[in-house]
Amino acid sequence: MADFTADELRGLSLFSSLSDEQCEQLLNRHLQSTHRPDQVFVMEQDYGESVFLMRSGLAKVRTFTADGDEVVISVLGAGDVFGEMAALDGAPRSADVVALTPLKLVKMRAAPFSALLQAQPSFSLALAQLMASRLRNLNQRFALQSGDATTRMLDSLAYLASKSSADGDPTAEIPPLAQKEIALIAGLARETASRTLSKLRTRGTVMDASGGGLQLVDLDPLRKRGLMPRP
Asked: In terms of DSSP H, where are the helices of the chain?
């Protein structure tokens, strides 16, 4: 696997304010790894001394209810950083992270990350903005849990597409995923998710992509439901 460089790190918005030297400091003794679908590579309640960066692929952040039901909190795509909360407060990891597709990962030491947050206000601000964006997205997805199945499925497909695209395109091709994973992300029973996807295919809103995944081809239903702004 090609080495991950300081230039590549600074190309990500979170790290754009850092110098070459500071990026090299973050990447000092970094590790790279590949993971297969369904592999758990961060476990809830583990103590973490690392911050992670997704180079490629998709992963889910999940936890379980007291009844043992799986809940998907968010999806991670290329360029996403995670694990910073445990690096900041020293508490155990708050959720599992599980590969949805084959993926590549960069693992950075938490100590230099925390030191730069204290020394570089612009870096701290960028992290605060990132966390605010995640919270806003989580709030929106939580608010939709009382919505109808079609609305929840459309929102989840657009979310997966944006995480699969370098520019956040909601019409980007979604990699092949097990239907149970799509159902979990949408917060639906598998049978309900299957019926809803079939209905969206029949309406021409969703199509099976050439790579074996799914693709949203009509965004008007999302606009009508207030899931994205009208052009």
From this structure: 6-10, 20-27, 84-89, 110-119, 121-143, 149-163, 179-186, 190-203, 220-224
DSSP state of 174: B
Its pTM surpasses 0.90: yes
Residue 113 has pLDDT above 80, yes or no: yes
Name the token pair of 174. Answer: 């979604």
pLDDT tens column, 34-71: 999 999 999 988 887 899 999 999 999 999 999 999 99
Ordered by where they begin, the domains of the chain are 6-142 (2.60.120.10), 147-224 (1.10.10.10)
- Which DSSP helix (H) or strand (E) runs through 51? strand 50-56
Q: What is the full DSSP assignment across 139-167? A: HHHHHGGGS-HHHHHHHHHHHHHHHTSTT
- Beta strand 103-109 with 31-35 is antiparallel
| Listed residue (16, 170, 12) closest to 80, CA to CA | 12
Task: Give pairs for 127-135: CB < 8 Å, separation 24+.
Answer: 127/14, 127/84, 130/13, 130/14, 130/81, 134/74
Q: Which tokens in the block code for residue 121?
A: 């206000």
